[in-house]
Amino acid sequence: MNLINEEITHKVFGKGNIVDHDDSIVTVDFNEDIKKFVFPDAFGKFIILNDRSTAKSLKKVILKREKEEEVLERKREKEKEQQALEQKRMEIIKNHRIHESSQIVFWLDEEEQQNVFTNWQVSTGKVQSGKNKGQPNRAARLGPNSAGLLTSREANQAETERRILGLYMVNELFSGNISDDGMVPAHSEYRIELTDEEADKMLFWNYYINENYPHRTTWNSGKFRYFDNVWTAQILKDIMELKTDEEEIKKVKSFLEYYCQMNALDIDNIPEPNGALKQ
User: What is the pTM assigned to this prediction?
Assistant: First the structure.
């Protein structure tokens, strides 16, 4: 907005003419007494434009700038929060030695299958025996590097038909060894839900293998079991290749990159799956 030659009135210096201005400074001539003011802060506080139409237009410009500043300030605050979270996350990682099998696989019951992709958290269940019977299971291996794999099978299906329904990174500040409610919450960004058609192609036992009994495909008991870090990377890689939508591919790729970074894995050298079904 061009304000040069506009007449103004200053609360202290009286009447003057604007002789120059840019995005941050306005220069006013008060009868050959040249003074500079912060633009646009001085307007409305110390300086009034004499022309009402120009003053109205300037007010719109100032309001627009204030809104832009509010947006920038919110962005700066969000960046500060993210930096603080990142610092806390790195402190947790530094003090938390990564176990080679620090991922978790859940066997979802029917109710959990209906709710998990809404509330994005899963229970580890209750301790079944001993002095802690009835208390929430504590998944002590889980940390910011962990992912939660979501699986299920129908009651009339063989265990070999267990499907992967989706997965998520755990919340970036979560630590299983200090969690006391048995809930494993998801990261706010890294979450994947598979369609039924996709899940049919993602069989759990293509990835999981019991090294002592490589042909065995039995879950036995319990709501969850730990899972190898490399196997989760294999799953993410296969999901990325399974997807056809470009935006979904980018989302899975971002998940995979973050996961590999958190688990010190080479994203370019992920081995092929070698689960029980591939023996």
Answer: 0.66
